Amino acid sequence: MIRMIRPDFTLTVTCPDQKGIIAAVTQTIAVGGGNILNLSQHTAVDINTFLLKADFSVDEHFQRPDFEAAFQEVATRFQMEWQLHDKVTKPRVAILVSKTSHCLYELLLKHQDGELPCEFPVIVANHPDLAAVATQFHIPFFQVDVAKGKSDYEADVQKILEDYRIDTVVLARYMQILSPEFTRRWAFRVINIHHGFLPAFMGAKPYHQAWHRGVKIIGATAHFANENLDQGPIICQDTIQVADTCSIAEFVQMGKDVERKVLFEALKRFLNRQVFVYGGRTFILP
Amino acid sequence: MIRMIRPDFTLTVTCPDQKGIIAAVTQTIAVGGGNILNLSQHTAVDINTFLLKADFSVDEHFQRPDFEAAFQEVATRFQMEWQLHDKVTKPRVAILVSKTSHCLYELLLKHQDGELPCEFPVIVANHPDLAAVATQFHIPFFQVDVAKGKSDYEADVQKILEDYRIDTVVLARYMQILSPEFTRRWAFRVINIHHGFLPAFMGAKPYHQAWHRGVKIIGATAHFANENLDQGPIICQDTIQVADTCSIAEFVQMGKDVERKVLFEALKRFLNRQVFVYGGRTFILP
Amino acid sequence: MIRMIRPDFTLTVTCPDQKGIIAAVTQTIAVGGGNILNLSQHTAVDINTFLLKADFSVDEHFQRPDFEAAFQEVATRFQMEWQLHDKVTKPRVAILVSKTSHCLYELLLKHQDGELPCEFPVIVANHPDLAAVATQFHIPFFQVDVAKGKSDYEADVQKILEDYRIDTVVLARYMQILSPEFTRRWAFRVINIHHGFLPAFMGAKPYHQAWHRGVKIIGATAHFANENLDQGPIICQDTIQVADTCSIAEFVQMGKDVERKVLFEALKRFLNRQVFVYGGRTFILP
Amino acid sequence: MIRMIRPDFTLTVTCPDQKGIIAAVTQTIAVGGGNILNLSQHTAVDINTFLLKADFSVDEHFQRPDFEAAFQEVATRFQMEWQLHDKVTKPRVAILVSKTSHCLYELLLKHQDGELPCEFPVIVANHPDLAAVATQFHIPFFQVDVAKGKSDYEADVQKILEDYRIDTVVLARYMQILSPEFTRRWAFRVINIHHGFLPAFMGAKPYHQAWHRGVKIIGATAHFANENLDQGPIICQDTIQVADTCSIAEFVQMGKDVERKVLFEALKRFLNRQVFVYGGRTFILP
Fold first, then answer.
1. CA distance C52 to C285
2. Mean pLDDT, chain D, whole residue set
3. Architecture of domain C92-284
4. I need a labelling partner for A201 at 20 to 30 A (CA). Which of A64, A193, A273, C74 fits?
5. pLDDT tens digits for D129-164?
6. Buried b / exposed e across B150-183, counting CB within 10 Å, b at 16+?
7. Which residues in chain B touch residue C34, judged by CB atoms under 8 angstroms apart?
């Protein structure tokens, strides 16, 4: 019989590198009553930046306020940015969709299977097509009217996100460009899936571009949306081999499997607190 | 005991699509004394183009001139471009290199292992570093002097290629841009390896570009060199996942394995007559 | 604009190898009014067996009975086994399930997306858990009572399959061993997914076996069920890398993605008439 | 400009899990003058075992004997097994070969490229075929006479290994079964490559077994040799897809690429101190 101990907390830390950081961090955890189950650490030597993620379980003596006070002293000493996430409070993630269902289904099925530690309180769409899928999974579905203009449209979306106290937004093949105001407001909290292996095939119809270029691989890229279309920090990518006997329609079909896989993996990395951002790129800790 | 019958000839055909082509082709082969062992056929419906590759063995009655005369009649009727390759005459391939050895070694070792049906009569370089490798494999090595200017330099290279009656040129990490005159003269007979998953990361230092962009995959692309740098028809591509904990130096190291694999595979496809070119892209038949 | 011509028929042929077969086959197709769009041919030289699959479209002069009569003459001459499949008549496939949903969802979603050219008229289960999924996709669901004994149980299943005029059965993680009578009756028409890279990890709990053996890859295998458990002819396989930091529960989760992919791919190959069986193994034509 | 700081030491630790271990370890490193660049930690909860690998650089105050004395106190307190490896002293690895060159070349070329932090002081063979390769790379080559019987033969091998002060042995397609005496003496210091995805296809001629079973993937496994043939703890594995049109000879050729990749990767993991062994399996830390 294999006993599974699940961590109670995840701590993430970023700071300028120097000696003694891990010792200070782990000592504080141990004194507070925590037992580390997994620790990943890396120093990005090109920018002298220390990155750490630690999962730990706690005993009955652990008191979160006491730990946070103690840790803040360490943090001040080392100029840390840090976050402590408990495993009970789940992030509230909104899914934005258009007409295509494969990415939406992937997220909902993986969630149903217990693989995504978040809640999906609401689905927002600019088309009515996927309302039935939302209903199947008992999730409120809102179709927002695009015709009223981007500004009013995004105000409506924003209101829904606020009403449902949303932390993070996933664009699951949401075919609508977000305004700079929106992406700035939700900086590093909007995950998009692009159906090309960026930076190749930015913009519209990447599979058409790929087919005409005669590439032998197609791919997909999950990234944070920012104000520059398809240029935000990349979170996850993958590719598959394609044959020249494939039509564009077959590229589109085969690509769906890569898209859903990459988007799921990106959200999982994000929810597992593996994604660090600096200098226009991400850094994924194992 | 498994008996291997090896094909004696490979026939490749391209023509406008219409009914009855395969019947005419295969009937001619059968009447001439050939037995088809593998046949791949595809119709590129977007341009109404028929593509065929057939490997066949022959009996003692087969006479090549008779077959070619008979086949020319079929070819004329269907407006075919066609080529008949026997398996005894091996293409003569020159390898051009600079300082890096991994692609050169891959080609020479795979050749030594019987996996590349060609001859490597000569290695040409713009640096002396790899002369010892050529010597190990008993292949003449010429270092051509770059200092004398591109025009004179390429005249020297051209002379060597002619002296050794070269059919095809492989650029095995040859860090020198070829002139339009040279690539036109050797159109669809120069195979280059680029260390990026084209069309991403064209030009110099693709691994540096990739690292700074924060991509999660790196790759390589083998393509025909043409007068537009890194834009010729693609023959083979592949990618691998990389971790953000990798340095640029590690990208370069890990990339070597993809480069050598993709270049080898591209040359193998070319030698096996699988590569058809039309409209700026290739079409690889299985 | 890219025009897609879809084939109207697929012809499959197996016979002892000799000269002139392809010519005879393709000539008959051309004379009958067919235009071949894709042709795959291979000779399994170890058993001197010729295999062919041809997809062709037809013009208005094509008459199926005339073609079949003409082709039967060719078939007799070459001792062929052959089948002609039109693209309108779709195979009727029953899905058998237990409690796990990922393979079932994969088949239903891919079907909904137009990627599986068959019908799913019925779902049969030995547990009630997946009834709601069947309802979502408007497919009749039957839970058969296992308690009544294998013989009666299988008689019930057989009756359902007959009532729904089923051609082919897919076991989508159906955790019930079929009797030799059943597998013989449905020989080469029952496709099963096993959650191990066979022939490793036959039998129960393959992920547990894999974890304890300390393997670095896990995989899945789709195969025809026959009377020897997990030993029928293999149709499709794949593997993924796993880390030693993974628990058995994570093996199970990660394995689901491989299982659904391999089962979908196996059914697709089967429906596309790519799967030939001989000598205890399959031969998949491209 | 990216500055690379290379670690000076790697510390590995195994012990029963309890609170405070990482704090104690990292505190000792910091006090001793070390700066941790990468730290991987995992707790194998099924056996309550703590595993840690830390790479650190040191300042001018670091004194190895002082550090070792200080660390031994920590080690005693937590019942640790531990090792401290400096990056200057390189393991001395002997390569044992028979007739096939691809694995040998891979190790020598990767070593030449700076990717394997070890020395290859000697190559031992039971056939003369690869002597020329050893000469190319200026490595002493010994052919030991198999005819004299396994016991005398292995005594000769052992003497060579001692003469060259060998730490670790790599069997690079060495087609000779080692005696239990030999494998026990060199326990967890002999790395073998098997050309099958173990535990499938143990024993002789795995590619023949695979072809006749009709599998759709082939693979390779690097493992520690122990007294049970092909059953030692696995270090690295990989597979590739194969087509049914491939002959056994093509399986053998395609398999070579997997074998050399897996053997190289296994040795790299071993030299990077990532490989922990317990309970008949390995545990690879990232």
1. 8
2. 93
3. 3-Layer(aba) Sandwich (3.40)
4. A273
5. 999 999 999 999 999 988 888 899 999 999 999 999
6. eeebbeebeebbeebebbbbbbbbbebebeeebb
7. 19
User: Taking a C-beta distance cutoff of 8 angstroms, is the pair B166, B140 a contact?
Assistant: no
Interface test with D, best of B102, B109, B173 (most D CBs within 10 A): B109
Q: How confident is the model at residue D1 (pLDDT cuts 50, 70, 90)?
A: very low
Please tell me the predicted confidence (pLDDT) of residue A278: 83
ipTM over 0.85: yes
Contact B40 C40 (CB under 8 A): yes
Percent of chain B exceeding pLDDT 90 equals: 79
Q: Closest residue of A to B41, CA-based?
A: A245
Interface contact C115, partner A, CB < 8 A: yes
Q: Is A26 on the interface with D (CB under 8 A)?
A: yes
Contact status of B283 with chain A (Cβ, < 8 Å): yes
Closest C-alpha among C23, C22, C30, C25 to residue C59: C30
- Token representation of residue C27: 């000539």
Mean pLDDT, chain B, whole residue set: 93
Residue D234: which of C215, C237, C284 has the nearest Cβ?
C215
Q: Which of A6, A37, A247, A257 to mutate to test the interface with C (most CBs of C within 10 A)?
A: A257
- Of the listed ranges A164-168, B138-142, C5-9, the least confidently predicted one is C5-9
**Would you put residue A181 in left (φ > 0), alpha (ψ -120 to 50) or beta?**
alpha
What one-letter code names the amino acid at C189? R
Residues in chain B: 286
A45-71 pLDDT per residue, tens = 778 899 999 999 999 999 999 999 999
What are the tokens at A107? 């997220």
Task: Give the chains touching B; criterion: ≥3 Cβ pairs < 8 Å.
Answer: A, C, D
Provide the residue ranges of all domains of chain C, joining segments of one domain with +: 9-86, 92-284
Strand, helix or coil at A268?
Answer: helix
Pairing between β-strand C190-194 and β-strand C168-171 as defined by DSSP bridges: parallel
Question: CA of D149 to nearest chain B CA: how many angstroms apart?
Answer: 32
Of the candidates D151, D149, D129, D155, the one whose C-alpha atom is nearest the C-alpha of residue D141 is: D129
> Which A positions 136-155 lie with beta carbon below 8 A of chain D?
none
Q: Which residues of D touch A19 (CB under 8 A)?
A: 30, 33-35, 59
Which two three-digit tokens encode residue C5?
């011509």
The answer on pLDDT for D28 being more than 50 is yes
Residue with tokens 């590759």: B53
Asked if A30 and D19 come within 8 Å (Cβ–Cβ), the reply is yes
Put simply, the answer to whether A22 touches D22 (Cβ < 8 Å) is yes
Per-residue model confidence (pLDDT) at position D48: 87
Say if CB A144 and CB A156 are below 8 A apart: yes
What is the distance of C-alpha B14 from the center of its chain?
A: 18
Contact assignment for A237 to B216 by CB distance below 8 Å = yes
- Which residues of chain C register pLDDT less than 70? 1-5
**Distance from CA of residue B74 to its chain's centroid?**
28
Joined tokens for residue D235: 């270090």
* B220 interfacial to chain A (CB closer than 8 Å): no
Residue-wise pLDDT for D164-208, tens only, equals 999 999 999 999 999 999 999 999 999 999 998 988 888 889 999
Is some CB atom of chain B closer than 8 A to the CB atom of C2? yes
Q: At residue B146, does pLDDT exceed 90?
A: no
Domain D9-86 class in CATH: alpha beta
Question: Is the pTM here over 0.90, yes or no?
Answer: yes
Instruction: Answer whether C281's CB lies under 8 Å from C188's CB.
Output: no
User: Catalytic residue at B163?
Assistant: no
The amino acid present at B106, given as its one-letter code, is E
Q: Which of D205, D251, D257 to mutate to test the interface with B (most CBs of B within 10 A)?
A: D257
What is residue A3's predicted lDDT score, i.e. its pLDDT? 44
